[in-house]
Amino acid sequence: MPEQLTFHLPVRESRARGDFFVSDANALASARLDAPDGWPNRKLVLTGPAGAGKTHLAHVWAEETGALMLTPDQVIGEEVPSIAQPVVLDDAVPLTAKAQEAVFHLHNHLAASALPFLMVAREPPARWGLGLADLQSRAAATDTVRIEGPDDALLSAVMVKQFADRQLIVAPTLIAWLVARMDRSFATARQVVDALDRAALAEGRAITRPLAQKTLAALKSP
Hints:
The protein has a five-stranded parallel beta sheet, with helices on both faces. Helix 6 packs across helix 7, helix 6 (152-165) runs parallel beside helix 8 (186-203) and helix 8 packs across helix 9. The protein has helices at residues 27-33, 54-65, 72-76, 97-112, 133-140, 152-165, 172-181, 186-203, 209-220, and strands at residues 43-47, 68-70, 87-89, 117-120, 144-146. Helix content is 46%, strand content 8%. By secondary structure, the protein is an alpha/beta fold.
């Protein structure tokens, strides 16, 4: 039988408020972002492991506050003095020397304008390895909130969302089965969902427990 022709289409990730599942692992971070008036100096750093939902939560906050979403490279080309709205700096590290200068000026402008500034990174500012001392001191003085590693409820919800982003419906019992047998991390959840999506496409079948067993075994093999 000829090998089935498959098309692995780009994934459209939903970042709506309703798609952000709040659990014990991220409840504190979610609450802090809901109250920017309580951020010391109107600044906050949001940290957490890869795939934890940091960017999703930042997009929700930006949508609700009218904030400007920027990456460090985009800050370099931005007319900083003209910014008149809150700012989210996504993927705040690593920062090139040129980006550090630009982000330093952004810090100063937002502070002078009393505008909220949210920075998103995997690690707290003390581990950013910044070469610009003035920026390092400003970042280090910024309050930090962390999304912790996933509990079962959050990991299950993350996988449900990732399957839904791929327009796949998977039985809740199979989600629970997967969570009990895979490494407990957001990165692994994304890897498992992607592998199951590809396997289902390649074999032209629904995502079932036998397919999940086969896929997990392949992921765990050297």
